[in-house]
Amino acid sequence: MTSQTLARTRRTRFLLPMLAVAGMLWTNAARPAPAEFPRAEAAANSQLLSVAIDDWASAFAPAVTGLVGTPGRTAFEVVLGGVFRAFDAYGLAGTHLATAQRLAIADSDIETAAQIAIVRGEVALIRGDYASVEVLSGELNDFGRKAGLAWAEAKGEEYIGVIDRRRGRLDDAARHEERALEIQQSLNDAPGIATALTNIGTIARDRGDYAKALDSFMQALAIRERTNDRLELTLRNLALIYRDLGDDATTRKYFSRALEVASAKADSANYAATLGTFASYLADIGEFAPALAAADESLAVGEAIGNRPSVGFSMLDSGRALLGLQRTAEAEARLREALAVGLALDQHEIMARSRVALSEAALANGDRVQARKLLDETFASPQASESKPLLDTANLHVALSMANGRWSETFHPIYYRGLKGGPLDIDADGYKHLPDGPGLGVELDWDWIDDNTRSTRRTPAA
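Above: the chain's sequence. Below: its structure in token form.
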């Protein structure tokens, strides 16, 4: 028997009793209980189980190194991280994986350290720990350069691209994701290619480049239909594209499939993200009661597993649904919670959309000054240009609701692209007129959007 085989055998003999104990703890902790949201209840029970396992493992961990050496202790910490990740206990998973990575580096095992850093990056993204993601991205790029690990560099580029996009730096995000795709294609790594394509498609959708977004998502779908890896997220992204294009039937078809796939998996983070996005769609089309139910379930799951980005979006869409149901006080409280999460994460989409919804709540309360202040804050954000026609329409509503609202800034008509009928045009007498349709009163011109989506102009990074 070789020394490597012996080491693996020792680790296996050691780990099997630990996993057996984990199974017994699961039997005791995961007791069925009636709950409004069973998935959230299961996730909460998983946290209790994980704490019990961690208490046992922490007491035993110091003896592990003496029994099986540093590589064995590293494997022990990796197994614990994997167990806690499977149980949606992402905080504990991150702690044990960080220990494993530190041990691997101390043992000069750079390849293992890089593999662990990739998993740590996924965990940190779920938790909204963006500072750690940035550090891990740098480490992965460093591992890639020093040890020739192209796959590590690809994940480093992918992770920093995700952070740049969430913070509104779309040009930087696109550059990093394109580099990740280039490396993954050179490695012929199908799951990695699908992830990079998904991220590129999301950035393109943010920019209004629906043709590129749809093409990227369809390429990712072809891969994920085969692998079933994160398939629900690609289906959700396709639903969002067709929502933006005004195709309700296709939107519902993709959401239905996404929810079916997400419900069949044990990944609570992706389930919450998929359900939360569906809630946003329902709020968009005025189905406020089911939107509230979906958003609140997504929120319960997100809070149970500590997924702060998901919590922020779910609070936002719960607030929007409450606003639609004319439960204004509850809506305002929930939207302020969403804004606080967005500010804490420095996640611009949550911040901008929360402020716009809060401005609607302020108008409903007759507080025109606060509504105008919130819209001004939204205009000042880096993502304001992405929603400028709709934001200008909302601004006009506020201006005309004020006793001294006698004027409104007007920009070149090119900035009002995508609205049907020129609702913000100035008439022959120099006046703007408030659109009188439902909501903001405007209708998006999807034919114009389709006909004029050709390419994206990117400003080179400084």
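The two ends are 58 Å apart (CA to CA).
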